[in-house]
Design brief:
alpha+beta, 3-stranded antiparallel β-sheet, 5 strands, two-stranded antiparallel ribbon, globular, 3 helices
Length: 148
């Protein structure tokens, strides 16, 4: 499911980027081990592939923010999954899909009624409940200037 993410410098790149990858705390469904985050070099390529603005000098900070955000998202999912701890004490992530251009119901309500407006990103996380059921969590990410 993951696209090829090269570790070689891009033609437009002005500096060398780190190629080290960080292992997440998020367990992979059907495999031993956890999901692995992209390196700054791979993240830079991913932004270019998606025709997004990419500043090589900022990649370390961008990847750090990305990883922290995903870890916090997983923690929030686990908080909800505690409600099902009897039937599945160890949920895992089957897959996730970035759907930035698709507005969720929550995103629509925010756009219509909230000062936050539309989310800058959306991820659909598909969580495996110990082989019994797959559950989708729709997570909208906002740039909330009023949040502390």
């Amino acid at each position: 499911m993951m696209p090829e993410m090269p570790q070689t410098p891009a033609a437009s790149q002005s500096i060398d980027l780190k190629k080290d990858r960080e292992v997440s705390s998020i367990p992979k469904t059907g495999e031993s081990g956890n999901w692995v985050y992209p390196s700054p070099q791979q993240f830079y390529h991913a932004l270019l592939r998606k025709n997004k603005e990419a500043e090589a000098e900022a990649m370390d900070d961008v990847v750090y923010a990305h990883n922290v955000t995903n870890e916090r998202s997983w923690k929030a999912i686990l908080d909800w999954e505690k409600l099902h701890a009897k039937s599945c004490p160890t949920p895992s992530l089957l897959r996730f899909v970035g759907r930035q251009k698709d507005l969720s119901w929550g995103g629509w309500w925010s756009k219509t009624l909230s000062y936050r407006g539309v989310p800058f990103d959306r991820h659909d996380w598909f969580v495996d409940r110990c082989g019994e059921r797959t559950v989708r969590y729709v997570i909208d990410y906002y740039d909330d200037s009023k949040a502390g």
